[in-house]
Amino acid sequence: MALTSWDTPAGGRGAAGGRYVPAADVAIGERDIVAAFDVPGVDPGDLAVEVHEGFLTVRGSRRPAWPGEGSGRAHRERPAGTFERTLRLPADADVDAITAALDKGVLSLIVPRLARPAAHRVPIGEAQPAGAEKKTRRLSLDGIAAELVRGPRRRG
């Protein structure tokens, strides 16, 4: 099961070069894939989850939280800004059944996986002798058009 990891600048640990990058955990199970993002302080309206051509993308923005006007100097450690994280989904992901929920600053995504069809054995037949070729009949374009109109002829 090939699954690429999140595109994680700085390994998904907070700010990367002054950018806000929420930490993400991904658990891959037999029935589903579960991803969780730490997005405290991010409003639900500032988050978007999209699936396009086998990629799941989470976008959002976290607004800076300033102590207030006129407070003089400020020291800010809590990162803010926009972010985008992308995950390549496996071929058996059921993209029409993905669910997302935001609870206590954690965005949880559940990607169900489609049931894999059971393997079946393909019978191997015997090769036909070199001289035993199937007889085929050749039709001209007029013959093909006639068969389309009246249907194939039945032979004896």
TrEMBL record:
Pfam families: HSP20. InterPro entries: A-crystallin/Hsp20_dom, HSP20-like_chaperone, Small_HSP. PROSITE patterns: SHSP (PS01031). Residues 15-130 form the SHSP domain. Residues 61-81 are annotated as: Disordered. Belongs to the small heat shock protein (HSP20) family. It comes from the Bacteria. This is Hsp20/alpha crystallin family protein. The lineage of its organism: Bacteria, Bacillati, Actinomycetota, Thermoleophilia, Solirubrobacterales. SUPFAM superfamilies: HSP20-like chaperones (SSF49764).
